[in-house]
Amino acid sequence: MHPRALRLGASVAAALVVAAGVLTTSPASAAVGDDDPSVGAASPNGLVVNEVESNGDDTDWVELRNTSSAAIDLSGYAFLDDDSSHEAYVLPAGSTIAAGGYFVIDQVSATAPGFDFGLGGADTARVYDPAGDLVLRYSWTAHAAVTYGRCPDGTGALVDTTASTKGAANDCSSPVRINEVESDGGTPGDWVELTNVGTTTVDLGGYVFRDSDDTHAYTIPNGTTVAPGGFTVLDEQDFGFGLGKADSARVFDPRGDVVDSYTWTAHAATTYGRNPDGTGAFAETSAPTKGTANRFAGVVTAEAWPGGPDERVLDDEDTFTGDLSGIDWTASGSTSGSAAGRLWAVQNGDGLLYHLVSDGEGGWAPSNAAGTELHYADGSGTPDAEGITVTSDDPGAVYVSTERNNDVSSTSRPAVLRFATADGSQSTLDATDEWNLAADFPGLGANAGLEGVTWVPDSWLTAHGFADEHTGAAYTPATYTGHGDGLFFVGVEGTASVYAYALMSDGAFQRVATIATPFSVVADVQFDPTLDALWVVCDDACSGRTALYEVADGAFAATTVYEAPSNADRTLANEGFAISGVCTGGSRATFYADDNDTDGFSLRTGTYPCDGGTPGDGGTPGDGGTPGDGGTPGDGGTPGDGGTTPTPTPTPGGGSTPAPGDTAPGGSTPGAGASPSGAPAAPSESSLTEANRGTLTAPATARPGETITIGVGTRYAGQQVHVWMFSTPTLLGTATVAADGTVTATIPADAPAGEHRIVVTAEDGTVLGWTTITIDPVTGALAFTGAEGLGVGAVAAFLLLAAGAGVLVLRRRRGTPASE
């Protein structure tokens, strides 16, 4: 039995004993792994959690500070995250922290010992003394943009810091930075652009701007703000003095402390700006970009996502248990398959493989609900499955990229594994082949290995003039005997780079290309034959940015960097990315796998624009699509050369016509939200997300048969809407929104007591919002008078309910940080 299951069983058993009143009064002994949420981040002896790094540096770490006047011996202290099944890291003998000093508990690396698990986006740092008592505890619900640190250092609250300061005093300075300076020929005059490298909006009221002359001072008016990552411009017409060709720009906070400054000795031909924005060194820009991101020659600047603004939930709540990491889209595999295609996904902590299909209503679910357990070739181990891809030269197989064997989690094992399966229907799978790339990455951390993997056909690479860094000449597939008909591209977390490999049938490998990226982390990599480009993906460490790479002069180079969709949650740990090959209604579906299972959901979708459906755009042999997708496997041909494809027939106006019951990638069902019979189509469970919750108003409680008033919003006045009640979708009626933004609906007379959801959809099926409502029974409820009013059977039933609740709470936990 899993240790966590043992602990849960023990907890339930203890609860039963307590309720029966037979628990002995012998004192409980402390043990490492026991938890107590009442313990805080400061202990009576002066030891405090001072700073936490969970995602931005090469290793995760927790910094302790000694705020007392005497040294503290930390020998034998133990450290854990929120998962007590992890092996606690015990600090070695001789570990001490001086009075007023710092001590860093670090993650294991190739050169230093440490804890062998990662710290997740929602996690806890726990420190135990040698007796096993929990003495320090700090929890967080999302990765910090930089680090969580005490401000003021050692004594203040833990907040998002301005800079990471491992083993030193925290940086609690203002996050305001001078970002660009125009000193000659600006419009309408000289100007200085400020930006905010922090995570919260800063009120600049009371800040002072000066040039090199202290008598030139401009106090910024109250109410002037700068948003995180945003820009605010100070114009000459406001500050009242010009900037010279040899001058300075200086910003002071309201206390008079210098926040930032920049000095130059000659006018720039354009402007001076930071590269990258906010954090980099100043250099001449390629053009003035007043109030927007800086531009430099040869540097790709992030631009807005060109598709839809949202990332919509696709999976039902708790479909996955967290750690969904890699994802890949393929065509359906047969002419009778869904137009939406299918998805492969892997879950890293427990090494599970999922085969997902569209439910025809805008959601996706695994056809193998329990997942397929993956193991190494000898049947042992739990591969830390981070990425997945399929190839057109190897029908009936999937390839998985891994960081390590989770059963030996402190040892790096960056590998690509092959598993023979057509649909993931097997309960377990042993790898048929393994390519362990460790020799190519000496010193790589166990939690810093292969995050993403994709496959690119040789025919495409040669047609685009791809060069081989190993031979120093044009890529020639025949150089690598037994490597198949394409190369595997892997994204490595620890180096933030992408590498192309020829993987030979005898287990040998050869690196063919190295591709640097602008990101701090590479979370996934995806070949896109529709764009003739390679997607490189960062997760929340880069606020969800993605980049497109195209081959130029023989090498892949970044041509576009995109911000996350404008309404997307940039703190989601989207470690997996895939894009559909089917163009429907002017867009292709994008897919995101959230490693943290935020709010119980792991799978989301967005859109990317396209020009219309074209036969062969969804995965023909040779274009990186699915095996067996309509042509001769392994022909290595160009898109569309493999014969009949399974993609939908294009309509004259572009896009594709879904088969009956199918759903377009964007989630809209045929008939603008109507069912085939003409009645409104019920919204799917997965469409009820936290993003559209609470945008309605309704009574907190109602009785069966009662008519209630629902506030939709005046912006919908005059529009016809459908009102539903869940759990089982029940149409309460179709109504026109009144001028005051309300509609009325009647609760069914047979509505069961308990909590339900009221959902309002537009005529086209779009969810306008939802909220919860409790249906009270018609008869009065009996008062609960306490345990003394319950019989033995009732006590047992109550405890079984409590035990069940414990199981549910356990299932809703976020993904374990060891699986990042």
Plain-language structure description:
- Strand 19 (247-252) and strand 20 (258-264) form a beta hairpin.
- With 820 residues, the protein is mainly β.
- The two termini are 24 Å apart.
- It is globular.
- The chain has four helices and 54 strands.
Number of helices: 4
Beta-strand residue percentage: 25-35%
Protein structure class: mainly beta
So what's the overall shape?
Answer: globular
Largest sheet descriptor? 6 strands, mixed
The percent range for helix content is under 10%
**Average pLDDT level:** 82
Residue stretches low in confidence (pLDDT < 50, at least 5 long) are 1-28, 613-678, 778-820
Rg of Cα set: 29 Å
- Tell how many strands the DSSP assignment holds: 54
C-alpha end-to-end distance = 24 Å
Give a quick set of tags describing it.
mainly beta; 820 residues; 6% helix; disordered N terminus; 54 strands; six-stranded mixed sheet
Summarize the structure.
The chain is mainly β and 820 residues long.
Blueprint of the fold:
Blueprint: H1 3-20, E1 47-53, E2 61-66, E3 72-73, E4 78-80, E5 89-90, E6 96-97, E7 102-106, E8 123-128, E9 134-140, E10 148-151, E11 157-160, E12 176-182, E13 191-196, E14 202-203, E15 208-210, E16 217-219, E17 225-226, E18 231-235, H2 236-239, E19 247-252, E20 258-264, E21 272-275, E22 281-284, E23 302-303, E24 312-313, E25 324-330, E26 342-347, E27 352-358, E28 364-366, E29 372-375, E30 383-389, E31 397-405, E32 412-420, E33 428-430, E34 433-436, E35 450-457, H3 458-463, E36 467-468, E37 473-474, E38 486-492, E39 497-503, E40 509-516, E41 524-528, E42 533-537, E43 546-552, E44 555-562, E45 574-579, E46 587-594, E47 603-609, E48 701-702, E49 707-711, E50 720-726, E51 730-736, E52 742-746, E53 754-762, E54 767-775, H4 792-811
Helix pairs in contact: 1-4
